[in-house]
């Protein structure tokens, strides 16, 4: 039975971290809500389901419903061959994925500092201040951290954890893609500052299954409804 | 060898979710940074450690370093007898803990919508707007979700997951405590709206080990340096 991924249609969003793992592994899956969100909303609004998710993305695997990106990848990683074999290293991978989750909140809130239920246009002034603080402080702090993790990996600086490709590597590929889309000016010099991260990004992008996926219609383009939005007025580089 | 918890001194903060689990289980642990943050900063700034945490809290158990609240509880839960015995339910517990983590970010950002490196006083206007949106939209959405999870638990509405006490129950106790401290007006009617959540809160607060801990000097009081801050101007109830 194929895995069922439930996520909003129209944006790569948080669903993308799950898609990249499923695609890299060549797993059999259905991206359920690409046609209609009815089945997804039925689960979310269910009054009988014992393990209701708070929000998409979530994964259904037979009777199991698993929600939250890091939790889904914790569950899928070993099944897809994308988690460290050493169980102790799986906590390191999970910790890194949770740092990525925190980073995504910071990235999202650059354009929505006040409320998710208001339009960007209605919180533009606060967004400018928040985005400037993000670019000056949070962006280098997070990227610098991920660069250090790569450089301090005892198995070599081509993997975030252990000596094999993991879902954390795939997720960081997508974060770099998104940041380059949203903040091209702020990111213009990133290769020089974060060489190991840049090399990881390029290596993931060259993997056959990832390349095939990125060129397919299953891959959704970044746009201004998602987490990574390109608003030139928020992309300051000084 | 005792567990070593590393977290900032002076606030309950995110470290509290780990403390509550260790205290309920009567585990042997050291709250390392209560005396000095030197040992904590040494690990965070290490240039050789293979699994550097991005930020506190983190836990050291012998050679293992585990970071992020949900990840630490995932690791400790089974050892402390505070996780479901059924492995599949552990993903449900982890998903709930991650929803609590997201909720905490929303709570924190009511007083820091613009930048963590600026004082509250310098982002007070944005904070008022964000807090009003939080109280009107996010607070009922999250509390309503947790109430539904309790009411739809096939093992009964006294536990968040499965039929035994878990770290998720302890964490929700602390969230309710914090919300009542920070937003007494917005929370004044919460018992009526969320009866199962209120009963869970009271039941956890009556557990002998928790009672003893709350009365001890190991428990830090809420204050205006933490996640849950009481600023009357942010606590609107209409």
UniProtKB/TrEMBL annotation, chains A, B:
It comes from the Bacteria. Residues 1-84 form the GST N-terminal domain. The keyword Transferase applies. SUPFAM superfamilies: GST C-terminal domain-like, Thioredoxin-like. GO terms for biological process: glutathione metabolic process. Residues 86-222 form the GST C-terminal domain. Keywords: Transferase. GO terms for molecular function: glutathione transferase activity. InterPro entries: Glutathione-S-Trfase_C-like (IPR010987), Glutathione-S-Trfase_C_sf (IPR036282), Glutathione_S-Trfase_N (IPR004045), GST_C (IPR004046), GST_superfamily (IPR050213), Thioredoxin-like_sf (IPR036249). The keyword Transferase applies. PANTHER family: GLUTATHIONE S-TRANSFERASE (PTHR11571). This is Glutathione S-transferase.
